[in-house]
Amino acid sequence: MSEINEAAVKNRNAVIVRTSVIGIIANVFLAAFKAAVGIFSNSIAVVLDAVNNLSDVLSSVVTIAGTKLAGKKPDKKHPLGYGRVEYLSTMIVAAIVLYAGITSLVESIKKIINPETPDYSVVSLIIIGSAVFVKIFLGIYVKKKGQTVNSGSLVASGSDALFDAILSASVLLSAIIFMLTGISLEAYVGVLISAFIIKSGIEMLAETLDEILGKRVDRDYLAKIRKTICEDELVSGAYDLFLHSYGPEKYIGSVHVEVPDTLTANDIDVMERRIAGNVYQKHGVLLAGIGIYSINHDNEEISEIRKTISEIIMSHEGALQTHGFFVDMENKTINFDVIIDYGFDKREELFEHIYDDVRKAYPEYEIFMNLDIDI
Length: 375
What we know:
three-stranded mixed beta sheet, elongated, about 375 residues, single chain, 10 helices
């Protein structure tokens, strides 16, 4: 890891820890005030709101612990580092949120079955109202910081805080309605709070599972990396760009590049080192492997075959791209890859159809066609 990149990682981790500490302090004070108001006013909705703040405190603690562990340097046992720990910490945060939501739901239902009359005061309403504004500010601040440093845990915590602000506002509204009309809605508001908390936890869990399973990398980001690769004077195309995540903003990848078949091993070696350096410098991505697609150079007959086969392939609905084209005229073989849209039904049947069409067009050649991944 370069000194520049290492400094950026340390700065990112510092931002996450600092933001989480601010969240802990704010939520501890909010939980204390809300708990006091809830107990003295006999309000289950306010007490559950306080419990929600305590779950936010625990979430922030887990985020800090996860960030510290993820920041550990690579070692013999984990040569690619501990960056994926952040995904696990986000899952723990999601589990905490889910537990808080389910517990709150159970308590709220109990209060609906066995209702108790709350006793709000003007002071309690002022405290709850102040908590709404604090949560809005905290949510915007934490979420913005999370987006800036690409921290799933911070973004989730910020979103959760904004939900909390809405829920606290509903508690405040139910208190005002009770003071004006004598109608108690707080147990039902508690159910509403619980539902929002559970929904937030499920969404956080689903998003983190997507990361762990390996969701599609942003297409614009991939396009920028391909553009950098294709800026090299010897490269005419970049394909099969795979990025493997080892934590937020830590990718190790591989790619195939199309180059003329006249290059020597020395030319290719120098080119690969140059491409890997440029990609790491501009995008922070380590290209661990650069494969070669050799292009037949200065052969009009092969160029015509390539053009014809490309037209055959792209005439089929669902075909997205063909690459890695190479013709061996001496051994009479044609090699190429085809990408078919994952959204297209019966991809395998379409693949066979394309293969038959190409084979009919060039029966004298042996066709080697590979169904590539749509990434």
